[in-house]
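Design request, tokens follow.
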């Protein structure tokens, strides 16, 4: 048979007729229970139709083939199966002289008088069959023969791979034409042949550039497109960020008509409320959708939008502090509570107040106020109270109580500086300047970015039939591959830029974290897509590696010029949008450091919220941002990624050594000053004891201990138990003799020395020499800094340290050496607290002075 076919139609025809017979299949009888010399010697040849008596004899059977054993021949033929006593006329048992090898043999039925022809009434195609004697032998290979029709080799013309531009391509084609068409000598630029050559040279130049561009983008070191750099960095688990928008607190000045009015975010009401920086036009309110609004946007202002709903009350515009009749008062640094003059029943825990210095403490003039003396606090408690004797300064006392409101905020919002409430008038020493600082209410968080609603993206195109992948050479059509079409390249672009990238926000916790404690780890583009037909929503992701085949997700990819395109899934990683789909995009523009505007920069409102656009009177009289906007960062550049990405995967995310456990403890609790790990065998397994040194204190709270133990679970090695231990505090005893200069009070000098050597924060903001933040594990305590600190105190003539030792261990070794050496888990401590003398003592013997 010279053909290789996939469908055996002749077999079916031969089985249906009754004139011609043929071989259906052949079986080699191989019974493992028989002796080895009797196995594989009987061939059961199955026919389509019964054999007539004497129709086939030994002379009609020829066996050929074999590589090692070539003399296999039939010694007997019998109608019927060899293993069954019953006679089956469709089976011819052929006994051979011996088994063959592992190669292929052919059993042929021939006419003894014409060996090239089959016996009479036997089909010429099915009168022979190939078989193997070793079919029962175990094999891991496929027994079905493969059919291969290799393509006809084509001689390749000689190409010059140095041809890479228009001129070399043109010269190469003209040389080729001279070889195959020597009679064509025309070189006139107007000739049609020359025109075609030059067109093809231009196309070759363009494609060559594309090849070079693709090769350039294939490596992190040479890639120029931001998208390519991002994908290279993602291979080493480095997430390239596209910048982050800025945030600030917006303060609303509400009229009495606006009491109780609620301004909502777009997510809550589908209404837009925006805040714009100053412009050339004096209008304060710009209705969205009007010509005035478009003219305002044409000046390219920075636009912010609300991140949380706010309820307005005119009484919260500006609230005065109450000092219980005292004058020249301030809220000290670190304060977490205050009293407000008046009753504010609508003031609730969770609201944010901004403490603002509105007058110069020395002059009382608003223009002399320090704009840096502003801070935001989130209230944790609000209590209504009163002053029973009344009166602002209790002169004279009043029988009518003065309503008051006590407010408290969290420790994380503790005042970073002293807030002046009232001061002495420099022009009149008998009077005071009141309301130097006040509390602004009606504050809400806003972030940089202007929302664009309803932008129509390009329609998803249908697959192009011209781009169907054709099958390569070969003629094995038994299992043909289904031609597949190239996936649709759908990368729609946004018409406006730059796309806003923002992190998540929850209106809780301290007010400072909303502005200052932000990361770039969870940044997502502020965009949402809606299918115009099914109304299904598609959400943005940083990548599609975790997306399911039915996940309606996409990735926004930003280029160096700020333009953004959207990439969708392929049906495996993310759902591929079906052809004909059109998306409506809602997204925000505004990103990076341009949003870090200064204080009092936002002064205009644009909105389509009926709360602001309707009504008999305006509910807003002014808006501003008392604090500067912060947190905006520009997108990461390609060079920054090239410098950082190759080393990103080297980040240690497991704890193996004791040093690793200390490092991971600092990652779990950033408020720790230092941490050290120690391995100890506890009788059954290794336990890692982590000694933690917290900032600003010597005591680690139970909650922080539990949080530290739970956090270390992400990093600890299997088989290691983890426990948190306290540092070993070494209390010190220092005795010194101080000579005071004449003209100085000895007690004043002593107090100054106690302050300098204390464990407290001093009034000027500096730390005492033995403050917990200045001492950590294994830190050697030297005498020289102590001498220097004491000698620098005004009024000190000389100082001599008489004793310098561990408390309770009388020794002069440290005094003689000039330092006290501590072990790796020991921390020095000298509180000099009379209530707790066991925490370290400082003995001063003062001489001289007044």
């Amino acid at each position: 048979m010279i053909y290789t076919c996939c469908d055996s139609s002749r077999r079916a025809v031969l089985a249906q007729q009754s004139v011609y017979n043929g071989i259906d299949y052949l079986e080699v009888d191989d019974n493992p229970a028989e002796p080895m010399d009797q196995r594989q010697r009987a061939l059961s040849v199955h026919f389509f139709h019964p054999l007539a008596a004497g129709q086939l004899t030994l002379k009609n059977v020829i066996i050929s083939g074999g590589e090692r054993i070539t003399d296999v021949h039939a010694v007997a033929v019998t109608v019927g199966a060899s293993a069954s006593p019953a006679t089956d006329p469709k089976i011819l048992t052929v006994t051979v002289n011996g088994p063959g090898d592992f190669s292929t043999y052919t059993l042929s039925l021939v006419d003894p008088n014409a060996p090239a022809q089959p016996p009479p009434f036997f089909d010429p195609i099915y009168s022979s069959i190939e078989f193997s004697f070793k079919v029962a032998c175990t094999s891991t290979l496929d027994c079905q023969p493969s059919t291969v029709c290799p393509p006809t080799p084509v001689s390749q013309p000689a190409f010059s791979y140095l041809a890479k531009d228009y001129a070399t391509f043109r010269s190469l084609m003209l040389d080729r034409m001279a070889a195959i068409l020597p009679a064509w000598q025309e070189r006139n630029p107007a000739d049609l042949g020359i025109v075609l050559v030059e067109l093809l040279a231009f196309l070759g130049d363009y494609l060559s550039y594309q090849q070079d561009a693709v090769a350039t983008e294939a490596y992190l070191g040479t890639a120029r497109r931001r998208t390519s750099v991002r994908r290279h960095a993602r291979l080493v688990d480095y997430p390239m960020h596209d910048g982050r928008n800025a945030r600030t607190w917006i303060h609303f000045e509400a009229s009495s008509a606006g009491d109780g009015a609620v301004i909502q975010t777009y997510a809550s009401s589908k209404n837009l409320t925006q805040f714009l920086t100053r412009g050339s036009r004096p209008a304060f309110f710009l209705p969205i959708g009007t010509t005035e609004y478009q003219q305002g946007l044409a000046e390219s202002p920075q636009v912010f939008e609300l991140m949380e709903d706010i309820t307005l009350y005119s009484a919260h515009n500006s609230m005065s502090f109450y000092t219980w009749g005292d004058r020249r008062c301030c809220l000290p640094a670190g304060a977490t509570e205050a009293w407000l003059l008046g009753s504010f029943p609508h003031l609730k825990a969770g609201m944010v107040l901004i403490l603002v210095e509105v007058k110069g403490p020395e002059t009382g003039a608003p223009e002399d106020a320090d704009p840096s003396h502003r801070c935001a606090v989130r209230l944790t408690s609000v209590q209504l109270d009163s002053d029973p004797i009344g009166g602002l300064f209790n002169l004279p006392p009043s029988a009518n109580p003065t309503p008051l409101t006590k407010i408290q905020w969290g420790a994380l919002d503790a005042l970073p500086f002293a807030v002046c409430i009232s001061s002495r008038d420099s022009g009149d020493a008998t009077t005071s300047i009141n309301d130097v600082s006040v509390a602004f209410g009606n504050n809400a968080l806003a972030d940089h970015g202007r929302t664009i609603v309803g932008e129509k993206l390009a329609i998803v195109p249908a697959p192009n039939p011209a781009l169907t992948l054709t099958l390569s050479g070969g003629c094995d059509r038994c299992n043909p591959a289904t031609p597949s079409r190239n996936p649709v390249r759908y990368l729609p672009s946004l018409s406006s830029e730059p796309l806003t990238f923002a992190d998540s926000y929850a209106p809780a916790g301290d007010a400072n974290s909303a502005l200052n404690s932000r990361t770039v780890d969870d940044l997502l583009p502020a965009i949402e897509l809606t299918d115009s037909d099914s109304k299904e929503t598609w959400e943005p992701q940083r990548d599609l590696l975790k997306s399911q085949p039915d996940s309606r997700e996409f990735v926004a990819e930003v280029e160096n010029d700020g333009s953004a395109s959207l990439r969708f899934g392929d049906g495996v990683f993310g759902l591929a949008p079906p052809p004909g789909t059109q998306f409506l995009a809602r997204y925000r523009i505004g990103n990076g450091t341009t949003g870090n505007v200064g204080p009092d920069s936002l002064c205009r409102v644009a909105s389509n919220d009926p709360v602001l656009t309707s009504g008999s009177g305006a509910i807003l009289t002014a808006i501003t941002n008392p604090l500067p906007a912060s947190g905006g960062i520009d997108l990461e550049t390609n060079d920054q990624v090239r410098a950082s990405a190759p080393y990103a995967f080297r980040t240690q995310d497991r704890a193996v050594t004791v040093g690793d456990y200390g490092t991971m403890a600092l990652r779990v609790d950033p408020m720790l000053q230092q941490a050290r790990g120690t391995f100890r065998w506890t009788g059954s397994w290794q336990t890692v004891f982590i000694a933690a040194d917290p900032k600003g204190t010597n005591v680690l709270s139970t909650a922080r201990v539990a949080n530290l133990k739970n956090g270390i679970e992400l990093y600890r090695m299997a088989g290691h138990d983890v426990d948190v231990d306290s540092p070993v505090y070494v209390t010190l005893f220092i005795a010194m003799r101080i000579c005071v200069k004449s003209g100085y009070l000895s007690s004043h000098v002593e107090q100054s020395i106690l302050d300098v050597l204390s464990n407290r924060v001093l009034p000027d903001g500096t730390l005492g020499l033995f403050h917990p933040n200045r001492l950590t594990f294994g830190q050697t305590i030297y005498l020289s800094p102590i001498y220097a600190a004491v000698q620098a105190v005004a009024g000190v003539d000389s100082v001599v340290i008489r004793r310098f030792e561990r408390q309770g261990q009388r020794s002069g070794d440290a005094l003689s050496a000039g330092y006290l050496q501590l072990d790796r888990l020991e921390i020095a401590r000298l509180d000099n607290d009379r209530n707790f003398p066991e925490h370290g003592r400082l003995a001063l013997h003062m001489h001289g002075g007044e």
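Comment from the thread starter after seeing the answer: thanks! Residues 166-217 form one domain.
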